[in-house]
Backbone:
């Protein structure tokens, strides 16, 4: 049986609360996931709103339809974005 592989873009998001609170929460999602839903979940966990979202790193993942785990596919070096 031949399994079909598809590539998904994965994004690692960092949610920043108000600078006064000095708190962050990180989450990794595929870009197929609606980012605003992920943000709402993080806001509820952190108990605050109006958060900024930073895209820290993205990479291509290859997933197969008959397996539950994801295998790293062709990965390009994507630099991390940092707040200075």
Residues:
């Amino acid at each position: 049986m031949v399994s079909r592989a598809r590539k998904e873009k994965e994004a690692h998001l960092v949610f920043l609360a108000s600078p006064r609170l000095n708190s962050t929460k990180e989450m990794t999602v595929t870009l197929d996931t609606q980012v605003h839903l992920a943000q709402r979940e993080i806001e509820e966990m952190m108990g605050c709103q109006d958060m900024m979202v930073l895209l820290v790193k993205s990479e291509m993942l290859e997933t197969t339809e008959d397996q539950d785990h994801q295998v790293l596919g062709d990965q390009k070096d994507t630099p991390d974005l940092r707040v200075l």
